[in-house]
Records
---
Amino acid sequence: MKEKKKLTTTSGRAYNEYEDSMTAGPRGPVLLQDYFLHEKLAHFNRERIPERIVHAKGTGALGKFTVEHDITKYTCAKLFSKVGNTCKMLARFSTVAGEKGSADTERDPRGFALKFYTEDGNWDLVGNNTPVFFIKDAKKFPDFIHTQKRDPKTNLKSPTMMWDFWSLNPESLHQVMILFSDRGTPDGFRGMNGYGSNTYSMINHSNERIWVKFHFKTLQGISTLTWPEAEIIKGKDPDHAQRDLVNAIANADFPKWALKIQVMTESQAKKFKWNPFDVTKIWPHADYPLIDVGTMELNEIPVNYFANVEQAAFAPANVVDGISFSPDKMLQGRILAYPDAHRYRLGANYEQLPVNRPITEVHNYNRDGFMTIDNNGGDSPNYHPNSFDNIETKVHYKEPPMHLDSNVADTYNRNEHDDDHYTQPGNLFRKVMNENERTNTIFNFVTSMKGITGEKRDEIIQRQLSHFFKADKDLAWRVGKGLDFKFKE
Ligand code: HEM
C-alpha cells in the first residue's frame, strides 16, 4: 500500500481539517484565521490564465523522433547528424478559431505544433495540417483572425465576416479551397498530415544554405469527415479528436508520421515561377520531390495537461544551428508574435517552465522577472563584458549571409506572378481532387455561403464567385447554382 501523504498548506504546514471551515461555535461565523480556506478560495480564483489568442483548443502528446535517412548534405543540425539519432519531442494539435472548450470537429485548419528537445536547444516547428495559409503578410493576421472569431455585436460566428474578408483577399483562395474540402474537418488528429507551411532554410557543414519545406505524412492514412458527419459529432462528442488520441495512446496504438522535406537551391528559387517564400503557394512535388528524413511517434500523454500542454510555448523563433529562417514575410512576423504571446500568456520566464526548458544548459545575461524558477544564473556576473565568467561569447557558429533581392524599403513590394492567386487552387480542384472530393467541397462552400446575410450579401457572393471563376469555371458555376445566385451587372 502507498504510504499516506499528509495534507498541507501550500507553504507546507500540516493541516488536518479539509472539509469544514473554522468557525466560532457550530453555526459560525467563520474565523478570519482559517488561512487554509483563504488559500483555497484565492487560488481557485486564479486558476485560469489567458487562453491562446488562436489555437486555444488543443491536445498534447509526448513522443520520439527517429532519424532514418542521411540529410547531412543539407543540414549540420546535430539532431540529423547520424541515422539512428533519436530525440524526445512534444506535439500539440489544435483547432484555430474556437475557444478552449469549442468542438474538435469545427471546420478549421488544425494546428500541428512540434517541439524537439535537441542537443542544440529546442527546435519548434509550428505548423498546420495544410501546406498553405490564408494570407501572405503578418500585417493581415489580426484582421483575418477577427473574421474567424465572433461578431462584435452579436458575439456569434459570422459567415458574412469570413466571406467578406476572403472575397476581399483573394490570396486566401488556395487555403479556402483546402479548408472547404473534407480536409477541413479531419476525423481526429491521427489521420492528418502536418506541414511546416512556411519556407525555412537548412545550413550544412560547408555553411551553404538551402530553402526547405517540412512535411509530416500521417502513417495512419488520411481520415476526414463530411460536413454532416462533423456536425453530428460536434454535438455528440465535442472532444472527439482529443479522445481519439488519448485512447489510441492508452491502447499502445502509437500514431506515427514520416518527416519528409522539399529543398530548393538559391538559384532554383530565382527561377521559380512564384515567390518561394509566399505561404499561399506550394512547391509542386513533381519539381521539388519529397525527401525522406525520419519518423515521429507519439507514445505518451503528459501526466498533467495544464503543466505540460496548456503551458507549452511553441515559437517559430526557436530554431537550432543548421535550421534557419527565410525571407517569408509571414514567418518573419511569426518570429516576433509567438514569444510576445508567451510573455503575455505565461510570463517573461516562460522558457524556464519544465515543458519549455531545453535539455541543454542556458547561459546568457538575462536575469530576474516574475516567477524566476531556475537559479537565475546563481552568483555569475549579470553583465557583459566582464572579467569573471567563462561564457564563450565569440561566435561558434555563423550563418551564411542571406542574399536580398533589393534594398529598397517599401510597403507594397510585388513581383510578377505574386497576384496569381488562381493557378494553384484551380489545379488543386481539377487535378488533385477526385469527383467525390469536388462534390463535397462544393456542398461545403454552398452550405457555408448560405450563411452570408445582410445588405452586402450579394456583393460578397458575387466577389467570391468571381475568384472561383478565375480558378475554375466549373467550380464557380456549381457553387453559384447551389446558391441559386443571379450575377448582377
Ligand atoms: C503572421 C501570421 C501568424 C501570426 C501572427 C500567428 C500568431 C499566433 C499566436 C499569437 C499564437 C498563440 C501562441 C500562444 O499563445 O501560445 C499562435 C498559435 C499557433 N499558430 Fe500561429 N500565427 C500566424 C500564422 C500561423 C501559420 C502560418 C501557422 C501554420 C503554418 C500557424 C500555426 C500556429 C499553431 C499550430 C499555433 C498553436 C501552437 C500551440 O499548439 O501552442 N500560425 N499563432
---
Amino acid sequence: MANAYEVMRIRLDTELSQTIAAIEQAKRSVGTVELDQSSVGRVSRIDAFQQQELAKVLQERLNVRKRKLEAALNRVELGAYGLCCACQCDVDPARLDADPAAVFCSVCVVGQTNP
Ligand SMILES: [Zn+2]
C-alpha cells in the first residue's frame, strides 16, 4: 500500500506543480489584457474584456483544482488517501486513476455538487 500511496503522491505533486504554473500563467494573461486596454479600439476592448473574464473563470477553476490536489496530498500524509470522504469506504481505484484527487466513491459522488 505504501508504494501505491507513493505513486499517487507523485501524480498529485506533479499535477499540483502544473496547476500552480497554469495559475501563474492565467494571472499574467489577466494583467496583459489590462495593460492593452488603453491602446485598443472598442471591439478589441470587448474582446479583451471577454478574454479577461475567461482568464478569471479559468483561474478560479485552477484554484479549486489546486485546493483539491492539496487536500488529496494531505490525505496521503494522514494515511486516509483513497477513502471516501462521505462513507469512508475505499474509493474505486479506477476512479482514483482517472482523478487522483477524487474525494468520493462512485456511490457518494451522486448528489455531490463538486465531485
Ligand atoms: Zn462513499
---
Amino acid sequence: MSGRVYNFGAGPAMLPGPVMEQAQREFLNYRDIGASVIEISHRSADFMEIVETADALLAELAEIPENYRILYVHGGAQMQFSAIPLNLIQRLPARRAAYAVSGNFANLAAKEAARYGEIDTSRSSAASNFDRIPEFPADGLAPDASYAHITSNNTIYGTRWNDFPDTGAIPLVADMTSELLSRRFDMNRFGAVFASLQKNLGPSGLAVVIIREDLLGHALPETPALLNYRACAEKHSLANTINTFALYLMKLVLEWLRDEGGVAAIEQRNAAKAALLYDVIDQSDFYRGTAHPPHRSHMNVTFHLADDARLGDFLREAGDSGLYALKGHRNVGGARASIYNAMPVAGCEALADFMEHFERSRA
Ligand SMILES: Cc1ncc(COP(=O)(O)O)c(C=O)c1O
C-alpha cells in the first residue's frame, strides 16, 4: 500500500495491510448483497455469521476452554474498569479486591473499582515510576477477596508480566488491552481477561471480555444493563446495536492472524521484532531503555536519548523517514515504539537502522 508509513503509535494502532485492503474492497458492497457491512442489521444472517466466525477464531487463537464465554462490550477497556467490579466485586460478601498497580491504566482501574468495594493496592511499582512489574506475594492476598487484577502489558511504561501471579482460588482478572493475541497464555489461569480492540484486534470503541462461566451472575443491582456480563452472555452481546464495523474488522484481523500461523507464530515474530530494538538500545550509551530489562514489553519499547535535547530532532528525522508516532507518553518522556502484531519485521528493521544512523550522525 503506497504512501503508508510504519506507524509506531500506541493505539489506535496500525492494522495489517491485507485487512485494510479487504475492508476497502468490500466496503460498498459486502458479499454482493448490495450494501455495506455497516448498513446491514446486527441481527441479519450475514452479520451473525461475522459474530460467530469471530467467536470461533478467538476461541481457536487464544485457546479458550469450553467453560469460558466471549463477550463484546461497548466502550473500550476503560468501560471494563467499571464493568469488572460491577460484575465481580460482590462474588464474596466482603466486596474486596486486590489491584496490582503497575502503571497508569492499572491505577485508573483500581480507582474506579474503589467506588464499589475495598481495594488493596499495596502491590505497586509507583515508587520507581512503573519501570518494572511489582512483586506479587500471593500469600498476602485476603482470602475473602472477590478477585485480583493485573494489567498484563503496560502500554505507557513498556513493561509486561512474564509470569502471571498464582492467586489460588481467587480469580485473576487481566487487562490485556495492549497484548491480547500477541503471545500465548493459559486462559485457565484467569477468571477473566479483557482488551479493547485498538492495539492488536481492530479499531477503537469495543472490548472483548473472556470470562469463566461460573463468574457470571454476581453483578451488583445497580449494574447498567449493557454492562451486565451475564445478560451480555445470554444475548450473545447483541442486547442492543453492537459496533458492527469494529466487530467486522476484528474478524478480518483474526483471519489474518490465523493465516499468519496463529499466536505461536506471531509470538516468535514479536520477540524477534522487540529484540531488534532492544539490541540497539543495549549496545549503545546513546539510548537508554526505561524499563527494567527482565520486565520489558514486546509490544511497547520505551527509551530515552541520553541527551534529551536531541529528542526533537530524533522524532522529526524519524518522521521524515516514514517512521511515524514515536513520541513517548508524557508520563515517561523520550520515545516509544509500539510494535503490535501488525507491525512487520521490516518496520522494526527500519527503525533499528534509523536509530543507528541517527546515533552515528551525532557522533
Ligand atoms: C493497558 C490499557 N488498558 C486500558 C486502556 C484504555 O483503553 P480504552 O481507550 O479502550 O478505554 C489502554 C489504552 O491505551 C491500555 O493500554
---
Amino acid sequence: MRAAVFKGAGRGLAIEERPDPIPGPGEVVIKVGRAGICGSDLHMTSGHGQQLPTDSIIGHEFAGEVVAVGVGVRRIRLGDRIAPMPFVGCGRCLACQQGRPHRCLQARIDVVGGFGEFSRAGENDCVVLPAELSDEEGALIEPLAVGLQGVRKAAMAVGSRVLVTGAGAIGLATAFWANRLGAGRVAMLANSSRRAEIARSMGAAAFVSLQATEDVTATVNEVLGGPPDVVFEAVGLPGAIRQAIDLVSPLGTVVSLGFCGGEDSFVPAIALWKEVRLLFSMCYDKQDFQHAADVMAAGDHRPRAMITDTISLAALPAKFETLRGASKDCKVMVAPWSR
Ligand SMILES: [Zn+2]
Ligand SMILES: [Zn+2]
C-alpha cells in the first residue's frame, strides 16, 4: 500500500510503499476513507518537544471500511465502517473496560495510522459508524471527542457564560459541545479573526480577535454579559493558562485542553483569590466517540464547517508543511484513495 511516512524531525513526510497491514488477534484492518490532519501531528513532527517515532505512519483522526478481521474479533464485521481510537489496549483491564484505552498499561500507539491506504485498528477501541455518517464526519469524531471530554469535565451549570481561547479544531469542537450541552453564551478568543465564521457555524455567539481588541477583559465581559464562568483553554502555548485564570470569573472553572510542551507559569495568588477550579483534560472515553457519532448521525452536521480542504495522499507531504505556518485552513482531510 501507499502511505505517508514520518521521516524524522525536520524531514517531514514522504510517500512510500509499505506492506499491506495484516490484523493481529482482536484487530481489524480498514480501508481508510478519510483522515484528518491534526495540530498535534504538526507539533510532534516539528523537532521540538515530544516527537512521533521516525519511519512511522502517523494520522490518528480517521474512518474507513473494515476489509479484514483478525482472530477472536466478534463485535466488528467485514464491511462495517468504523472510527478507531488511536490507542489499542489489552481489552481486559479496568481502563479498557471503561473505554479508556489510553489509560491501559499495555496501550499501543504503533498499531493505528491513518495516513495510508489501510490501517489496523483494535476491535474494542473503535466505534461503528451509523449509516448516516460520511467517512469525513467519521474522521471528525476524534477531535470532537476531545472537546466533548473537556466540556463534560467542566460540569458547568446550565446557562453558564463560556469562553474558549484558541480557535483550532479542539477549540471549535469545545465551543460546539458547550453550545449543545447547556451553555448560555459561548464566545471564542483567538489571535486573528480567520476562524470567526467557522466558530459561528459551530455555535459560538461571539468571536473576539486579539488583533482587533485593546482591552481583552472588557471585550470578553461585554460580549458574554459578564466574566466567563468557564474558560476552556485550547491554545497550548506558554501564557495560555495564566490568560484563562485572568479572564475567568471568581469561583469559575478553567479547563486546559491545550497541548503545551514548554514550561508555563501563572500567579497562584490570583487563582487563589478567585478560588479558580483548574482542570486538565486529555483524550476521551469511548463514550465520547460514540456520542459524537450519534449526534452527527441524528442530523447535527455543524462540525463539517471545520473541513476546509480535502487532498490526495500524494499532496499530503507538501500540504503538511504549509500548515505549520499561519494557514487559512482549519481541518484538512486526506482521501488516500483519490488520485
Ligand atoms: Zn487529533
Ligand atoms: Zn487494558
